[in-house]
Amino acid sequence: MVLTLDNMGEAADLERNLWPDSSTPVGHHYSVTEILPHFLAILAKHDVCVTYFIESWNLAVYPSTIREIISAGHEIGWHAWRHEAWSKIGSEEQERANFARSFGGEGLRGFVNNSKPGEAIIDSYKGFRPPSGMIYGQRTLGICKEYGLKYISPAGQNAAVVPLQNNQDSMVILPFRWTTVDAFYYMETFSKLREMKGESEKPQSEQSLTQKIIAQIDEGIVRGGYLSILFHPFLSNSPERLQAFETVVAYLA
C-alpha cells in the first residue's frame, strides 16, 4: 500500500491559462499555503510517509516548502515540468525537452545547486507519474532510464517489471487506479470516467470516497500485490475533505 500526492501549487493552472489570479501572486497558491500544512500535520500525527509527485516548476517557486517535505521523510517524485498532459506531448523531441527542462538548471539541478548541505536530496526524483496517466511505451521508459528514474507510475492495474528494448535494462511499473484517486470522486470533469466505471456521473461525497477507497484497501490486503492511493491537496479545500483524507491516512496507519 502506497499513499501518494499529486500536483503542487498553481503549476497546472498556469499550464491551462487559469492563473495568475488577479488577487493572488504566483508563489502563494492556497493549496501550498493553507492545505499542505494540514496534510503534513495529519501525516506526522499518524506517522505515515507519502510520495509527492511535484511538477519541477515548483522547485524554484516553493523551494523551502519542498525542503520541508523532504526533511519530514517524504519522497519527492516527478510530475512533468508544469503538469503538461503527457497524452498530448506527442513527439519524442517534445518529450525529451520536458525531461531536460525538468532535470536541468530550471528544475532539479538548480534546486540541488541552490540548497545547503543536507537540504536537498539529489536523487529525489526516483519515480515519474505522468499527468493524465499515459505514456509512450518503450520510448518513455527508455528516456526515464536515461535520467536515472527507477520507476514510473502511469494509470494501470498491476505492478510489473518491464524489460526495455535493449533487453539489458528494465523499468519498474507502479501504477495507480482511477478508483483510488480523490479527483475521481470529487471533480465534475471526471463524470464520464465515473460512468465508464459503473458509478453515477455526479460528483460523490467525502463519505463515499472514504468507504470506497477503504474497501479497495481491504481488498488489496486480501489479494496481495501493489495498490496506490492518490490525493491532490488542492481538492481538500474544506474541513470535510480534510477529514476524509485523515480517515484514509489513519486507516493505512
Automatic annotation (TrEMBL):
As cofactor, the record names:
Co(2+)
SUPFAM superfamilies found in the cross-reference section: Glycoside hydrolase/deacetylase
Q: Which domain of life is it from?
A: Eukaryota
Q: What is its EC number?
A: 3.5.1.41
Q: Which Pfam families match?
A: Polysacc_deac_1 (PF01522)
The entry lists its GO molecular-function terms as:
chitin deacetylase activity
User: Per UniProt, which keywords does this protein have?
Assistant: Carbohydrate metabolism, Chitin degradation, Cobalt, Polysaccharide degradation
Q: For this UniProt entry, which segments traverse the membrane? A: none
InterPro entries with a match to the protein in the record: Glyco_hydro/deAcase_b/a-brl, NODB_dom, Polysacc_deacetylase_ArnD
Q: Which GO terms describe its biological process?
A: carbohydrate metabolic process; chitin catabolic process; fungal-type cell wall biogenesis
UniProt domain NodB homology: residue ranges: 33-97
Q: What is this protein called?
A: chitin deacetylase
Species this chain originates from: Ramularia collo-cygni
